Amino acid sequence: MAEVFFEQMTADQRHGHHAALSVISDGRSASDVIAAALMHDIGKRHARLGVIGRSVTSILMLLRLPLTRRMLLYGDHGEIGARELTRMGAPSLAIEFALHHQSERPQTIESQTWEILISADQAPKARASDVV
Ligand SMILES: [Fe+2]
Fold this sequence. Notes:
Elements (H helix, E strand, L loop, with lengths): L1 H6 L2 H16 L5 H9 L11 H12 L6 H7 L1 H12 L3 H9 L10 H10 L12
Helix pairs in contact: 2-3, 2-8, 3-7, 4-5, 6-7
The chain binds fe (ii) ion (FE2).
């Protein structure tokens, strides 16, 4: 899993790292919770979009306008990441959180754990200065 983590853009690595630190500071040290925080956005790396591309994608998605292939990959990053985590044998919590972190809590994730992970996902995200 480490190789995939380091294939991410630096800003996404930083975001995952901050998310992992956030769950630890919330008192969660179980490896599945930390893995869920650390790896939830690995699917984004396939889109190879920088901050501006991601922002444009988000706007186009809100407006329900046509997207490029890379934008579609970005939009599907949760599902893509969940499939990869499944192939890697990641903990079920990491798979489920990657799959659902942009939508509603699935019944497979206990509500307190979900809140901690969602809060951790608010940790610093990509900044324009992080992407070259
Ligand atoms: Fe995230």
